[in-house]
């Protein structure tokens, strides 16, 4: 038996399903929506029962009764079933910030889709939601998931500069460390995690065929009330620290 091979089957399944659709259609917008659906369905298998995953918007109240602000549409929203839902039709939902425990932006190829702008938008979404929460002690998952990109050797210095540019507008803002993008899958092999207590909080890992399951396991960890931590050798079947390429 091999836990590493077990987790790698998650990667193989994600890629097999996306390639299956790519062989049938040429409409990139529809393919993008299907990739969101594939990831959503895979993540749903691992979530504790009290959480649901969908797509939609988050709205929050202002100081004027009867008025509200709305987020941009968010690819994937993970929310607590014990919170009320303003609107739901299938997997499409409109929620208030208190219900949301995590958000994910899903991309086909992050390298070709303007890394800095996508990360900046994800930071904006995180700030919008987190600022509307009353309980700011809850961990918040803000992830960007890319199926492809960065498959060939790439310039890490340029990448880090582009990544850091996405954070510039948020440095010094209240709760910045709590709402910013904290997990990124660049492709099936490259994974980024933020450790806020470290001097250089962003760690880049090269973990062959395991970036996708590490992304999902970290999401599950945030939601699981320590169950993943107590069984970390099962959820993280390899020590990614041995594969840390750079910290910044």
If you had to describe this structure to a student in words, what would you say it looks like?
This protein is an alpha+beta fold and 248 residues long. It has one domain (3-247). It is 37% helix and 25% strand. The chain has 8 helices and 11 strands. Strands 1, 2, 3, 4, 5, 6, 7, 8, 9, 10 and 11 form an 11-stranded mixed sheet that branches. It is globular and about 55 Å long. 32% of the residues are buried.
The share of residues in helices is 25-40%
Number of domains: 1
Distance between the termini: 36 Å
Q: Quaternary state, please?
A: single chain
Mean pLDDT across residues = 94
Number of helices: 8
Biggest β-sheet description: 11 strands, mixed
Enumerate the spans where pLDDT stays under 50 for 5 or more consecutive residues: none
Rg, rounded, reads: 18 Å
Shape: globular
Structural classification: alpha+beta
The SSE string, one letter per element, is HHEEEEEEHEHHEEEHHHE
Number of strands: 11
Strand fraction equals 25-35%
In a nutshell, what does this entry contain?
This protein has 248 residues and is of the alpha+beta class. It contains eight helices and eleven strands.
């Amino acid at each position: 038996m091999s836990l590493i091979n077990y987790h790698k089957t998650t990667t193989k399944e994600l890629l097999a399903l996306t390639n299956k659709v790519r062989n049938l259609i040429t409409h990139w917008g529809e393919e993008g929506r299907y990739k969101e659906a594939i990831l959503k369905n895979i993540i749903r298998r691992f979530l504790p029962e009290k959480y649901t995953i969908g797509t939609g918007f988050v709205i929050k109240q202002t100081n004027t009764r009867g008025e509200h602000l709305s987020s941009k549409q968010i690819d994937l929203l993970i929310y607590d079933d014990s919170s009320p839902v303003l609107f739901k039709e299938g997997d499409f939902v409109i929620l208030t910030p208190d219900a949301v425990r995590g958000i994910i932006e899903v991309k086909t190829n992050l390298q070709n889709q303007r890394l800095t702008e996508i990360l900046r938008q994800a930071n904006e979404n995180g700030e919008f939601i987190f600022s509307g929460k009353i309980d700011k002690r809850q961990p918040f998952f803000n992830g960007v998931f890319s199926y492809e990109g960065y498959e060939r050797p790439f310039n890490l210095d340029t990448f880090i500069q582009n990544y850091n540019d996405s954070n510039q507008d948020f440095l010094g803002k209240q709760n910045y460390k709590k709402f910013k993008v904290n997990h990124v899958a660049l492709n099936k092999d490259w994974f980024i995690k933020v450790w806020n207590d470290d001097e250089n909080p962003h760690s880049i890992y090269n973990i062959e065929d395991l970036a996708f399951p590490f992304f999902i396991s970290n999401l599950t960890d945030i939601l699981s009330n320590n169950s993943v931590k107590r069984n970390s050798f099962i959820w993280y079947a390899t020590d990614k620290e041995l594969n840390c390429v750079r910290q910044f």
